[in-house]
């Protein structure tokens, strides 16, 4: 569906994407995970055929965005990071006007709009002005709008940024359904839980480069132990404690507010920490996540 080889994007002297290889297959949910500024949006804009490629090759549905932009854009859907809805017209009219841009006949657009309102659970809000919607409703409307042309690929740039947990789950649920319907999903996110929930495969980006790729589970298996014991000591005591427990874990990370011990059995490790006479203020044993993968690969947390 999407094939990039050595793909680059420059803004003047600054290189935002420094040569990445990506291969997105039909029907999968593919993610770009990385912190702010990693180059995710720049990549998405090239894939959406709205930003020219600076180097390397890019094919979308087998076509070249440099020469086949309109054909590509007619077969993909784009849900941008910022809601770009028209605030001064109704929910229904936002979809209707957008559908007409695609040159669809009125009757067909009307039917499609009803279908999409139902799909994103906004039928009851059809006559409301957009400015009266909650953040989650606006995001669902933007998703509905991106689906008006029945796209084969849906590009979503940070689909749940700024939404509260409940609204995020509603968006995730709709995206799952789209995937079940066979739509290929490509999304960017800096939330590792979102990447784990939604993505079959993903690439981890940092500083314009791909630092790892695979399924969430395979990335965790490759770059982390199964469990992580998080220990909190008093302010400034984490470094000193790290030296005393280093041999208890496969790997130790010292973060400003806590110590992470990577180990096969977190509870057992915590017990051994106590046996050594150390008394953390708080302990937590959890399974490893993509956040741990990112930390391992870059030395930073995703939210730094
Ligand atoms: N139009 C532009 N002109 C100059 N620099 C840009 C432009 N667009 C992006 N950049 C820079 O390119 C880098 C990558 O930005 P990009 O938006 O692709 O990152 P991102 O991973 O999507 O992060 P975010 O989550 O913040 O959108 C950043 O340093 C950004 O400042």
From TrEMBL:
Which Gene Ontology MF annotations are present? Answer: ATP binding
Q: Which Pfam families match?
A: ABC_tran (PF00005)
User: In its keyword annotation, does this UniProt entry include Transport?
Assistant: yes
Compartments where located: Cell membrane
Keyword set, alphabetical order = Antibiotic resistance, ATP-binding, Nucleotide-binding, Transport
Q: Which residues form the ABC transporter domain?
A: 2-232
- Asked whether the keyword Transport is assigned, the reply is yes
Q: Which residues form a coiled coil?
A: none
Write out the similarity annotation.
Belongs to the ABC transporter superfamily.
Name the record gives this protein: ABC transporter ATP-binding protein
